[in-house]
Amino acid sequence: MSMPPSDAEALLKFKGSLTNAVSLSSWDPSINPKPPCTANISNWVGLFCLNNRVLGLRLESMGLTGNMELESLSSMPMLRMVSLMNNTFVGPLPNIKMLPHLRSIYLSYNHFSGQIPDDAFTGMPRLRKVYLSNNEFSGKIPSSLAILPTLLVLRLDANKFQGEIPNFHHKNNLKIINFSNNNLEGPIPPTLRTFEASSFRGNPLLCGPPLTNSCQFVNPTMLVMKTLLIVIMIAFIVAIVVSILAISRLRSQKKLNEQHYSTASKFHTQASSKYVKPPPVYVKTKSLAEHYDPRSPKPDQYNHGHSKKEKGEQGKLIFLRTDGLTFDLQDLLRASAEILGSASFGSSYKAVILDGQAVVVVKSALPSVIVPHGHLKSSNILLDESFEPLLTDYALSPLINLDHAQQIIMPYKSPEYAQLGRITKKTDVWSFGILILEILTGKFPENYITSRHNSDSDLASWVNMMITEKRTSDVFDVEMGGVGTSKAELLKLLKIGLSCCEENVERRLEMKEALEQIEDLNEGQTSSSTNTDHHNFGEYSSSLVTTTNTERDAYRAV
């Protein structure tokens, strides 16, 4: 007895919507003339069969991608399970509700993104297991999930969901849930408070049991009154500022008129006398010698005769140099600043070495301070014309309010603070590693993008992902000069940066070790091989989250 043609046609149509489907070569009737199922035996890869019909699809870790069409499987009435975990699918959530008889859907560890429609799970009364973890979904959790009558397992962790958790109506059926590591907020619904606190961690704005932070409810009337009071205070302050500016403007205009009248009178009474221009202000810069160059004009050598620009040049700043060149304030403001990482690899490399040395010196000088520097980032490193770095903002962390420091100070964006709520003596090493990665990748400084550490989206994770996908050449900044002749050194320096960014504090390098490795790289630069095995970086790649025995058993049950 052969399987009806409709199932085979549906599977081939589904395969046609995929790209890189090399793993599905057995799904080709010209190569494999057998039907997909013979009784309970599968003739095509990735199928579960029962009585010559396809019961489930398990196409995991096959490198599949493309805009898959789940609608093509709607003609398979016996289909109960679809698993496409650990592939590279992108885009929005597929149209799952076109498979109303589905009982289990596994889409974890892909790159799906965007908001899920609120009715995405409408009309699926038999759906029992939903795995959407480790994707990039955003927006609110769809309310149609909360009303599924037979839902047993729900995994939404490691996404970007926002808003409040909906109230689940059939709480007695739920066995496993996980909402951790999202951007959810508000109180946890009473129907879900019997689950472990780990199911909700990683959402700073969630509150209530089983979490330890309690919810603070605001009286609506008090909130309106407080808002009204703030608006009145702002309006009062604005009125005062406008009044002060108006009075100041009137006084300035009156003074200007008086000066104009006085000047006009003097011009009529002393028409034959010469107008004496106030001397310009001379400013010493850091590069001036003790004595001016004889070629430079002295204050008493300037022509004090009348000219059309005399009035407009009163109080003008003039900067003198020993080589006879002069420039004013406008010239100084138009000068372009040196940007860390924008020069060749050699210059950037030099800056990194000296930067690391400076931090080591600070650690030796301040052994009792947990984080000697405490605010190491690219914007706190100034470069002179020879790319010699100067570190700024030493030891500011203890002087800043904790609430404000958590938003702007680098140690409070480190993995150890996100995981343990404290900083360590290796936090400066993590900041130094991020600095190395910013220089090599040319990425915008991470401390301006995120207010806290996120192991799923930080710069080190991105570099690890690129290395895992064998796209190491795409990591480096294309604007960095000299990359073509020093690729091996770049890769070694990249490895040092990743070692400094290790989330495990015990495995993270000491600052002294990082500096020694960079110095060794500098000494052996000319003799090092240019053939670098990208697989050496595999030990820095993040591993996939493994499921518990309970979840694994739930996964196996269809």
From TrEMBL:
Residues 236-537 form the Protein kinase domain. GO terms for cellular component: membrane. Signal peptide: none annotated. It comes from the Eukaryota. It is found in: Membrane. GO terms for molecular function: ATP binding; protein tyrosine kinase activity. Residues 289-311, 521-543 are annotated as: Disordered. Pfam families: LRR_1, LRR_8, LRRNT_2, Pkinase. Its main location: membrane. Keywords: Leucine-rich repeat, Membrane, Repeat, Transmembrane, Transmembrane helix. This is Protein kinase domain-containing protein. It comes from Trifolium subterraneum (Subterranean clover). The lineage of its organism: Eukaryota, Viridiplantae, Streptophyta, Embryophyta, Tracheophyta.
